[in-house]
């Protein structure tokens, strides 16, 4: 629906687990998550006390937008430092796939003011990993102190946008690699 998102997708390999365009066994990838380095997380709207605070720990029931949802919605993450990122994932609320983000753009920033698009999806509804996660690969690793998720639509629910989890970090074939 959004040409801007499609251009980002064409520049980012959203088929996770590819190295040099070749399939890679999932057990060969080591994930380094930024979850413990999140210093603040905010959302453009939240339903009562269902804010975004537990998204990086996939805390139930997760984040809920105001009702009725008005797009776009944003979730902004401040990290405790600058980190190199090459993957990003979303986990829908259990049993409510139709409330999950469908079309979104992910931006990164060093200063929280100047943003660079680093990934996105025009259809994040179907999970592409075990456990219900939908991951995208950030083709060119990016350093980020801040992340901004802008959600343009959900998977069909007319009233609500929800999300149980967010993950981001660095995947490497070297188990000694650090963020």
Give your account of this protein's structure:
- This protein has 179 residues and is mainly beta.
- It has one helix spanning 3-11, and strands at 18-19, 22-23, 30-33, 38-43, 63-64, 73-91, 101-109, 116-121, 134-154, 162-163, 165-172.
- Strands 3, 4, 6, 7, 8, 9 and 11 form a 7-stranded antiparallel beta sheet that branches.
- β7 (101-109) and β8 (116-121) form a beta hairpin.
- The longest helix is centred in the first third of the chain and has 9 residues, at 3-11.
- It is globular and about 35 Å long.
- Mean pLDDT is 82; it is low at 1-28.
What sort of overall outline do the alpha carbons produce when their principal axes are compared?
globular
Total number of helical segments?
A: 1
- Structural class, from helix and strand content? mainly beta
Largest sheet report: 7 strands, antiparallel
Strand content: over 45%
> What does the radius of gyration come to?
15 Å
List how many beta strands DSSP finds.
Answer: 11
Q: What is the element string, with H for helices and E for strands? A: HEEEEEEEEEEE
The helix fraction, in percent, is under 10%
Unreliable stretches: 1-28
Alpha carbon gap, first and last residue: 34 Å
Q: Provide mean pLDDT, rounded.
A: 82
């Amino acid at each position: 629906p959004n040409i801007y998102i499609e251009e980002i997708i064409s520049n980012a390999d959203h088929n996770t687990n590819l190295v040099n365009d070749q399939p890679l066994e999932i057990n060969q990838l080591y994930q380094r998550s930024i979850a413990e380095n999140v210093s603040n997380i905010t959302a453009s709207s939240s339903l009562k006390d269902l804010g975004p605070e537990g998204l990086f720990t996939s805390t139930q029931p997760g984040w809920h937008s105001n009702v009725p949802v008005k797009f776009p919605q944003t979730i902004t993450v401040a990290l405790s430092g600058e980190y190199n990122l090459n993957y990003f994932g979303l986990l829908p609320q259990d049993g409510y796939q139709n409330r999950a983000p469908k079309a979104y753009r992910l931006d990164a920033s060093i200063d929280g003011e100047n943003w660079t698009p680093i990934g996105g999806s025009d259809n994040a509804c179907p999970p592409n990993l075990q456990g219900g996660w939908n991951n995208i690969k950030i083709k060119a690793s990016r350093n980020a102190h801040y992340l901004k998720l802008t959600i343009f639509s959900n998977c069909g629910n007319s009233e609500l946008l929800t999300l149980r989890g967010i993950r981001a970090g660095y995947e490497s074939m070297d188990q000694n690699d650090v963020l």
